[in-house]
UniProtKB/TrEMBL annotation:
Known catalytic reactions: hydrogencarbonate + H(+) = CO2 + H2O
All residue ranges annotated as the Alpha-carbonic anhydrase domain in the record: 38-285
Protein name: carbonic anhydrase
Organism annotation: Trichodelitschia bisporula
Transmembrane segments: none
Gene3D superfamilies: Alpha carbonic anhydrase (3.10.200.10)
Signal sequence range: 1-16
Amino acid sequence: MYTLLPLAALAGLASASCLHGTSYLPRRSTGNNTIEVAKFGYTGTTGPVLWDSLSADNVACSAGRFQSPINIADSSIATAPNPTSYTLPTGPLTFENLGSTVEVLSEASGNTSALTFDGKAYSLKQFHFHTPAEHRVSDEHYPLEMHMVHEAPSDGSLVVVALLFDLSTTAATPLVKALAAALPAIANPGTATPLGEAADMADIAKHITSTPLRAYAGSLTTPPCKEGVTFLLATEPLPLDVESYNAFKRVVKFNARFSQGALGEENLLRVFAKENEGRQRAAANETPASGAEEAPATSAPPALPEGQGEGDAATVPVGGGPGPVTEGAVSTLDGPRATPAARVRRGRWAGRE
Ligand SMILES: [Zn+2]
């Protein structure tokens, strides 16, 4: 049971999520160029393994079966046609530190930024950053990921364009370099600064319209972990100069959710909860009656299942849990789960194959 916060502390826990700036979660200014900061975090009891405990609205974080981010390792994650056009924001931009990320808000009067994808028009609401990157490609991770959150005025559907960045000693992405230079102005969570017209996003637009994309139907990677979000992920990274990377890391700190399970399969946190429940039931059944002669004087720590206790600790329980459940351990719980049908399902996105 995860009753860790008083009820009064639960209000507004979804603030500053990936929905920020959309019609689902309008931006809230607190005046004097300051903005509301996130209540969720990436460490301890406000971290990703307990996001569902922070608000009843966050149930998808632990129960959803199409959660993001994922490892793009499977060819069944569909390739997607490049957007036919990408119009860059023309209006003034605002750069904000939400505590959970740094974000550029593009919604302003006269802002005509638009993505046309799959025959539908979307407008760019904001873009923000994760360090390290959240999606992996063939298991490889990257130092930085940019999420461009678009909403369709026609029906409110969301498309997140995800761009990966890799370190380079010879090249840089002008937009990231410019934002890195502005980061000291928003070093503290809750602060904002105008960017003016200076953002050079030409190579961002070129990347989106010309490099290979993968698409899948996933979720927001932050509370409330809303599903039905179409991700368009560019698998080729953009260049990131070391100085900009260090500037981002210094302010953003760490804000990557752990890799989620295969699309359509049971949420890893549910898998863990069931596994833990089974262990506790087994331990209770094995507890000898009081006065039993065989009771040992000291108890040894419980044995870990195969594959557990090392690896990348994809899901780390807190509060005296029996230990981390690694992705490797999950597959041993109830036999192989990736049936051919499940593999086909992984490639499903937004109703397309
Ligand atoms: Zn994001």
